[in-house]
């Protein structure tokens, strides 16, 4: 395992301090916790947004704390959901008196830890709502199992719900907007290499020279299928058609997309995928209004990429394009 | 069971987890995210630290200390489950230094019920519940037996290991492994292994008490 | 070689198209060339800025095209300097009647190809100046050899010279400012793994499990020394002290820094380095006014990082903090 | 030399570079950035394409076509050097279909001078100039020999290979390899190898003309 670290035990703590070093105008650390909160909290009376999860997904989640997106981000150990006390600290940091929306990716651990935190917040009189993100279409949705996972599409939830909260929408409205984002959101990813969980010290899985893993989650876990390497064109098309089918996107519909690197895959490859995406949307007569390309939800140093599609309506489009200013995502008004 | 035994049980569990840390991570790597050993080891290390730093007045307080510590240091699915389970466990234990075997089983029953409630997993879902649920049945059947019956807990530890091993053939329906569907077949569930190790720790503790 | 590409020959062309797909509000492609130019050119009468180099350094160089930074970026094949005709096309795209500053990293190939392009521009009556970036202190400076290389510090030149040009400074003033940036700039990098040049299909060099390569350039070439892996603390200190010595930075001086990933090294590791950097500057009584942390000048999917220090004075500080809006770097006025 | 021979020379050079593409990349990987073979191969492939698409009226025009093509397709240090060198070369060649051996040598002289001017490298700097500069001296000495003297060009090709091999022991002072300093010792300079291949192509062409 080759990583620029000091000790496995201190990675998360050190990294959070380093985030504040790099982004002091955006972030402060809530003392004694693994929570990053806005250095300039939003006005009282507005709904707070908290997101979080295991570390190792940088810039998620601290990178999305700032104007127009999150109010606080809660970090767990690498690939381990944060504990309820930490989530609760995040809720308190985000609460400006109008309640707090928790953005939770649908993993058992995240769901349970955030639920316990909500119970604590309840006891303290802080109103909370949850939006459960489950955009990963690689996984079958089912009532009888854990259902679909939340992956990179979560960033769209941060952006759109964050914009609504910034505009002053109340808690239940922000939740409704966030839920409709999720209802119109689909993602799928692939890995070209595994990543190495620092505490484990070796790659989580091994891939042959000509193999890729389709339908991976974001915890470096194996995907749902191992297939031979594809070209950029084949890969983009295969992900795209799957997402279009899941969302039943039809002629003339408006979409936003995210082409996300899992970590090691460089921007030049994402750009090639983005080119294919533009051509694919043209062929299916979809109106591609926005592409987020880059590292948004990573799995440490894994090579691979994910594609996300979001169906837009006027409201989501407006909120998506609303100004925001965070370390990892800035929408500047021209 | 008294406080000494209770603490010994958890110290022993911490040891077993620490020894099996890599095994648990490897099992989790196959069908999850490779952190179950690290998570449990981190949390139980903190439990031992907490024991060393605090001498609590009662079993109830001891169990609460365990629950709070696990809840705030393990993280992930196992942290929420073990943490809230042990907090529930503590509420059932008396504010005293000793509890009857039957009282211990009642507390454990509350623990398992809390897990069921929180995690919604049933037998066959390929989770730690594949160990805890049958173990509870077996323990409840033993409720009339004298505390310290080495036989019972040793047999239970062995059975727990078997129930854990049997998760190998199951398709996961709860937790992170569920995303793998059929691909989860052929791998033992890591959470069931740590659950079985807890019963091993119980057996070791009772054996020590007796001898 | 596992990459999300279609064919080695079309990588650069496809990636440039993809950049326009992702950033249509910033970038347009100059038809028939490998040049990305601002989609909204700056006002006439202002100095143009052109930078460029081989591809594989994304977001460099197209990512820095936009308000307050570059006017055009010229791409070569992966790790190959662009050809003079392409550079000349970039100059023409950037020229708004007040001349064009070329930001050139000091590599033989870049220097020569940009020089030939200047000769073409000269013949066409477009005034050009060159700033030669040579921030890599791993290499000995010498009149008798190629001298020092230009690496990640180039981004500071883009930012500061770009801000001066945006403010309306004339060509010779912009060049003077750019030259003083270079005179106060020092960088050094390391690799934990090699990268694979697509056309070559295999890693450029091999590193043992406990080895790192110090003083690497940005073309995936071997560095100046192979050493055992260091901790984040040792690595940051070793790079830092080398840079501080080179710049003769003393008590109370003001600096900006860049903690740059070579590609695969994730943000969590950069953040750990940034934390150490902040402590180191405190110990040496330097005033660390700005940290750029992230992927700014990469080498495909290489794992590793570089550290850059820039001595600030009031002018450089003001220009560094001036608003800019490009795909890869945005300074938003708060 | 006539246009047929001139084009054959470049076609042969293109072949040799293509065959040695990986060797050149590997040499460049050791002390540079692993692209010299790809760069030259890309450019020479385009030269062949340009030949196929254009029948120029003169040697001057043919040489200019080569220069423009290399200049705009090779990139890197070698592209700037070969490109501007061949453009210079073309200015010295007559607007005619044939040139005397001495005229060819004059053009080559201009080529090498352009390289020296652009690249500032001298013998011993571990670059293509370690082949071109001594080769020019040897060619100038042969200026009175009849065109088509197979002996001379075959010998020259052999010497060129030797000069290229000898770069192995040098410390690079120009080009990308210079950054490696002492570490560049022990590796042959890739640009010197492609230069030597050019003389090989010249020898092969002359041999073909003669036979
Ligand atoms: N819903 C659930 N109910 C009971 N146990 C569960 C549930 N989900 C997961 N588990 C257990 O948790 C274990 C995984 O724990 P761990 O790896 O520490 O957390 P995570 O899955 O969040 O990484 C699984 O092996 C399984 O036994
Ligand atoms: N200043 C120079 N003068 C002459 N030849 C040079 C000079 N610099 C580099 N070269 C030659 O160029 C070769 C490298 O070419 P190439 O790899 O295509 O370009 P780059 O170094 O830009 O990647 C070297 O092997 C060397 O022979
Ligand atoms: Mg986990
Ligand atoms: Mg796990
Ligand atoms: Mg090159
Ligand atoms: Mg090269």
UniProtKB/TrEMBL annotation, chains A, C:
UniProt-listed GO biological process terms: glycerol catabolic process
Gene3D superfamilies: Dihydroxyacetone kinase, domain 1, Dihydroxyacetone kinase, domain 2
Enzyme class: transferase
Residues in DhaK domain copies: 7-329
GO MF assignments: glycerone kinase activity
EC number(s) per entry: 2.7.-.-
InterPro entries: DhaK_1, DhaK_dom, Dihydroxyacetone_Kinase
Keywords tagged on the record: Kinase, Transferase
GO cellular component: cytosol
PANTHER family documented for this protein: TRIOKINASE/FMN CYCLASE, TRIOKINASE_FMN CYCLASE
Protein name from the UniProt record: PTS-dependent dihydroxyacetone kinase, dihydroxyacetone-binding subunit DhaK
Organism annotation: Ferrimicrobium acidiphilum DSM 19497
Lineage, broadest ranks: Bacteria, Bacillati, Actinomycetota, Acidimicrobiia, Acidimicrobiales
Encoding gene (name): dhaK
TrEMBL record, chains B, D:
A GO term from the CC aspect: cytosol
Keyword Membrane: no
Recorded superkingdom: Bacteria
Pfam family, one: Dak2
Stored SMART domains: Dak2
A GO molecular function held by the record: glycerone kinase activity
EC numbers on record: 2.7.-.-
Stated name of the protein: PTS-dependent dihydroxyacetone kinase, ADP-binding subunit DhaL
Organism name: Ferrimicrobium acidiphilum DSM 19497
Organism lineage: Bacteria, Bacillati, Actinomycetota, Acidimicrobiia, Acidimicrobiales
């Amino acid at each position: 395992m080759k990583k620029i670290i000091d000790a496995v035990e201190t990675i998360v703590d050190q990294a959070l301090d380093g985030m504040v070093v790099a982004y002091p105008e955006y972030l402060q650390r809530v003392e004694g916790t693994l929570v990053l909160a806005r250095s300039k909290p939003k006005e009282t009376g507005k709904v707070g947004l908290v997101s979080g999860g295991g570390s190792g997904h940088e810039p998620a989640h601290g990178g999305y704390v700032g104007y127009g997106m999150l109010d606080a981000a809660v970090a767990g150990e690498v690939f381990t959901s944060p504990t309820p006390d930490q989530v609760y600290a995040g809720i308190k940091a985000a609460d400006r008196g109008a309640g707090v929306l928790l953005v939770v990716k649908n993993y058992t651990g995240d769901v349970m830890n955030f639920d316990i935190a909500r119970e604590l917040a309840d006891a303290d009189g802080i109103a909370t709502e949850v939006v459960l993100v489950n955009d990963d279409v690689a996984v079958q949705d089912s009532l009888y199992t854990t259902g679909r996972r939340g992956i990179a599409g979560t960033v769209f939830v941060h952006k759109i719900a964050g914009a609504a909260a910034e505009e002053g929408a109340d808690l239940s409205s922000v939740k409704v907007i966030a839920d409709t984002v999720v209802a119109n959101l689909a993602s799928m990813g692939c890995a070209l290499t595994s990543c190495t969980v620092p505490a484990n010290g070796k790659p989580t899985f091994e891939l042959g020279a000509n193999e890729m893993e389709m339908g991976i989650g974001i915890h470096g876990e194996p995907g749902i299928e191992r297939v031979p390497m594809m070209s950029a064109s084949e890969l983009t098309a295969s992900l795209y058609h799957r997402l279009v089918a899941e969302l039943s996107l039809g002629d003339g519909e408006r979409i936003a997309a995210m082409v996300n690197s899992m970590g090691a895959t460089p921007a030049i490859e994402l750009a090639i995928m983005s080119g294919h995406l533009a051509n694919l949307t043209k062929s299916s007569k979809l109106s591609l209004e926005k592409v987020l390309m880059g590292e948004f939800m990573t799995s440490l140093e894994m090579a691979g990429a994910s594609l996300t599609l979001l169906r837009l309506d006027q409201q989501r489009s407006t909120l998506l394009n609303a100004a925001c200013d965070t370390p990892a995502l800035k929408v500047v008004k021209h | 069971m008294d406080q000494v035994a209770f603490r010994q049980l958890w110290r022993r569990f911490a040891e077993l987890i620490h020894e099996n840390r890599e095994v648990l991570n490897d099992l989790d790597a196959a069908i999850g995210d490779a952190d179950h050993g690290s998570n449990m080891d981190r949390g139980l290390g903190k439990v031992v630290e907490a024991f060393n730093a605090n001498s609590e007045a009662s079993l109830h307080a001891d169990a609460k200390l365990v629950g709070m510590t696990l809840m705030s240091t393990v993280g992930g699915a196992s942290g929420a489950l073990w943490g809230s389970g042990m907090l529930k466990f503590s509420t059932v234990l008396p504010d005293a230094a000793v509890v009857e075997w039957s009282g211990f089983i009642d507390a454990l029953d509350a623990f398992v019920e809390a897990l069921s409630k929180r995690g919604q997993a049933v037998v066959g879902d390929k989770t730690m519940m594949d160990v805890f649920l049958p173990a509870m049945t077996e323990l409840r059947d033993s409720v009339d037996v004298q505390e310290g019956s080495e036989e019972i807990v040793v047999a239970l530890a062995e059975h727990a290991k078997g129930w854990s091993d049997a998760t190998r053939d199951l398709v996961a329906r709860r937790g992170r492994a569920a995303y793998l569907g059929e691909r989860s077949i052929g791998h033992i569930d890591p959470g069931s292994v740590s659950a079985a190790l807890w019963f091993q720790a119980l057996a070791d503790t009772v054996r020590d008490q007796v001898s």
